[in-house]
């Protein structure tokens, strides 16, 4: 008998190699892993979830985020500045981040993601103010409490304003400190087993906040520890201009000369590569986390995801920080990705299936977990999103449930299941701590915003 069966689905979009879409489908899960997928009569289970009039997909994967930023969400003085000015205005507020704030912001941010059908999230935690405590450990504990699969990165900044970077002195550390903390984080938290709930990557923040030596040494450390690498890349024109002025080259050449042009790496944004750089990214196997809402809000541009995918770049989706994207919804990012691809490359270039691939298989590839995450087939993790397709929003949307999922709406997941355990049921979080955590989040947010 299975532990959990999801049955009677209008469609199960498996995202397997054949991209099977199973009408009247079911998914069975035992010991946290998918046991089988099929149609018609479902096997017996301890728990059965009826998915009548629903689309069932693999759980969505968030490939780039800054969870702590929801403490300064939609902060008015920062809503009309491009990237560099926006960052410099917010650094003084973020410098007050501590372990309590990291824990609560991560809990609330991951809960918000779960409501949008997300089952796995990374986080680029690059801000570690001195004396703030164990911020990474605080985030990981929040994910465990909620039951979310978590891929946090041990981020870093080492280049302050006095050194020609953007951040203030109080939020940077020297290279040796960062590398020691990075190695300790992997030793303490990285789980290499199949179906692991927690894995760590190493993530110097960006070319304009770290030294070139740190980029090189971090790549060497990641190779030795066999973990993944993550950083911001080619995010906007300012980013390109900084790289040329400071390093004498464009961001792609900088990746290559620092040892980051490897299939161990996935980058955030990737808005401004030229045609040759798109080809080189694909040849190297570098992944990209597309963050459409953030790129729109900060006027960074539209990432060439159609060309990147055609070149062999694994493209996932990221909600980015909730001070730039503001809404942490993977469903919204998937819809934005579909629409922006149509706008940039033609009406037929952006489809719901393309966006679903990025939100599942692309994210899994970015995190180095192809075949394990982002797919519903025997042996993959039991991470599932159930999407209701009934009611006025979907009236008449009968011919294609996958297209209906993104072209209608807006929608949230009806059920979000992580490792075979419901985190969201009937559109509501299963945790009894939601009110408590929101109240604490408001208190901490007021402190940071000095309200």
What is the SS-derived class? alpha/beta
The oligomeric state is: single chain
By CATH, the architecture of the largest domain is named: Alpha-Beta Barrel
Percent of residues in helical segments?
25-40%
Overall residue-averaged pLDDT value: 95
Largest sheet report: 9 strands, mixed
* Uncertain spans: none
CATH superfamily of the largest domain: Metal-dependent hydrolases
Beta-strand percent range:
15-25%
The value of Rg in angstroms is 21 Å
Total of helices: 14
Question: How would you describe the overall organization of this protein?
Answer:
The mean pLDDT is 95. Strands 1, 2, 3, 4, 5, 14, 15, 16 and 17 form a 9-stranded mixed β-sheet that branches. The chain has 2 domains: 2-59 and 372-427, Urease, subunit C, domain 1; 60-366, TIM Barrel. It is globular. It is of the alpha/beta class and 451 residues long. The longest helix is centred in the first third of the chain and has 17 residues, at 99-115. The chain has helices at residues 83-94, 99-115, 135-146, 175-189, 212-225, 237-247, 251-257, 275-284, 292-297, 305-310, 330-345, 352-366, 401-407, 434-449, and strands at 2-13, 21-30, 33-39, 45-50, 54-58, 60-62, 118-125, 149-156, 201-204, 228-233, 265-269, 287-290, 315-317, 384-388, 415-418, 421-425, 428-429. Helix 2 packs parallel to helix 3 and helix 4 (175-189) packs parallel to helix 5. The N and C termini lie far apart (54 Å).
Question: SSE layout and pairings?
Answer:
Blueprint: E1 2-13, E2 21-30, E3 33-39, E4 45-50, E5 54-58, E6 60-62, H1 83-94, H2 99-115, E7 118-125, H3 135-146, E8 149-156, H4 175-189, E9 201-204, H5 212-225, E10 228-233, H6 237-247, H7 251-257, E11 265-269, H8 275-284, E12 287-290, H9 292-297, H10 305-310, E13 315-317, H11 330-345, H12 352-366, E14 384-388, H13 401-407, E15 415-418, E16 421-425, E17 428-429, H14 434-449
Parallel strand pairs: 1-4, 1-5, 6-7, 7-8, 8-9, 9-10, 10-11, 11-12, 12-13
Antiparallel strand pairs: 1-2, 2-3, 5-14, 14-15, 15-16, 16-17
Helix pairs in contact: 2-3, 2-14, 4-5, 11-12
